[in-house]
Amino acid sequence: MSEKPIFIQHANELITVSGGSEKPLTKEEMNHLEIINDGAAWLEDGIIKAVGTTEELQVKFSNRLDEAMIIDATGKIVLPGLIDPHTHIVYAGSRENEFNMRLNGATYMEIMNNGGGIHATTSRTREASHEELLSESKKRLNSFLKHGVTTIEAKSGYGLDWETEKKQLEVAKRLNDEHVIDVVSTFMGAHAVPANYKENPDEFVRIVTKEMIPEVAKGNLAEFNDVFCERGVFTPEQSRRILEAGKKYDLIPKIHADEIEPYEGAELAAEVGAISADHLLRASDNGIKKMAEKGVIGVLLPGTAFFLMADSARGRKMIDEGVPVALSTDCNPGSSPTTSLPFIMNLACMKMGMTPAEAITACTINAAHAINRGKEIGSLEVGKKADVVILNVPNYMQLQYHYGMNHTDTVIKSGKIVVEKGQLS
């Protein structure tokens, strides 16, 4: 039996973010949200059936209002469900000790090279069972949901051996099946060079390209293939081999690029046709230009820079240069242990010079394109999935003005109410 139709009415602002379903929004397009005052939406069979003013939809559905669940959004705003296109949510353990080490002067790479960082989480994740990983990850997804997130991407990369990488990807698939949030999987076996291959990283690259990637494709375990292109991790040449190998198996390339220092990661993303280049704290002017030319989405992670006490990516310049920008929490245990995408929007405005409107675009339609879902989600348009969030603010600018707060009132996923008054239904 299908869910009752949902009629949202009297929204102070119904923000459709329409017009970007075919391709991500760029430049001044990112600043135009397409707002309907006294807005309304009719949701039925998990799909958006109509959007418009309250008066228009009351007339259109006048003979069906009695059968609908009516939500009064007076004094509130309505947005597309938020989308997080870069997370590492499937992991075990915690690394608060490293936070203390950084406060005492240690750098991210110093911690990693001394057995901490990714290697510490890898050890805990290898030890954890499927059920333990599933349980821990579901708690994180619940927190995402309460912050208005309805779709996320999830990477492997805390295995660095096939058994654990496979375990992470299998858990991500179970999360997609068992949790209301849609989980899109990315293989990231090339997240770091394992300690036992430190003197022969090319051999590990061979294992990733010749052994792991074919198994990922065979098991249909991921849609994307990612690599950490960084000095001391994988070189641009090694990263190219890994991404090109994935393309042969129809895995869409993504890349962790230019996070610690300029390393031609943005340029490589453009050359291999990556759907996105992520981090980009130290991306060169030339790399930004090439990304804009090729339409590579820049997924920016200001929470990571904030937590590592580093300068943020040049979001303002990227938008002005024509790079389609998306935002993400980068939820992970070492450099961004947060599930608050609204706070990431706050940081985008305060640390990267983005406008409140651009921040919303970056967490909705552009984030959808960063995971190849722009035609399905990311805007409130007829025919798209009925993923909607209602927030307790009278206008969208207050989302950034009242920073560090969770304004989520109601979350609707595929036409079903899953959060009411800020609590899971």
Q: What are the SSEs and their pairings?
A:
Elements: E1 6-15, E2 35-44, E3 47-53, H1 54-60, E4 69-72, E5 77-80, E6 82-84, H2 96-103, H3 108-113, H4 118-127, H5 130-146, E7 149-155, H6 162-178, E8 182-190, H7 201-218, E9 224-229, H8 236-248, E10 252-257, H9 265-272, E11 276-279, H10 285-294, E12 297-300, H11 302-307, H12 315-321, E13 325-327, H13 341-352, H14 356-363, H15 365-370, E14 388-391, H16 398-401, E15 408-413, E16 416-420, E17 423-424
Parallel strand pairs: 1-4, 1-5, 6-7, 7-8, 8-9, 9-10, 10-11, 11-12, 12-13
Antiparallel strand pairs: 1-2, 2-3, 5-14, 14-15, 15-16, 16-17
Helix pairs in contact: 5-6, 7-8, 9-10, 13-14
Structure commentary:
With 425 residues, the protein is α/β, with parallel strands linked by helices. The protein is built from 16 helices and 17 strands. The chain has helices at residues 54-60, 96-103, 108-113, 118-127, 130-146, 162-178, 201-218, 236-248, 265-272, 285-294, 302-307, 315-321, 341-352, 356-363, 365-370, 398-401; strands at 6-15, 35-44, 47-53, 69-72, 77-80, 82-84, 149-155, 182-190, 224-229, 252-257, 276-279, 297-300, 325-327, 388-391, 408-413, 416-420, 423-424. Strands 1, 2, 3, 4, 5, 14, 15, 16 and 17 form a nine-stranded mixed beta sheet that branches. Strands 6-7-8-9-10-11-12-13 form an eight-stranded parallel beta sheet. The longest helix has 18 residues, at 201-218. The radius of gyration is 21 Å and the shape is globular.
| Proportion in β-strands | 15-25%
Decide which structural class fits the backbone: alpha/beta
The parts where pLDDT drops under 50 for at least 5 residues are none
How many DSSP H or I helices? 16
Number of strands: 17
The rounded distance between the terminal residues' Cα atoms is 19 Å
Structural shape: globular
Instruction: State the share of residues found in helices, binned by percent.
Output: 25-40%
Please tell me the overall pLDDT.
97
Computed over alpha carbons, the radius of gyration is: 21 Å
Quaternary structure annotation: single chain
Largest sheet: 9 strands, mixed
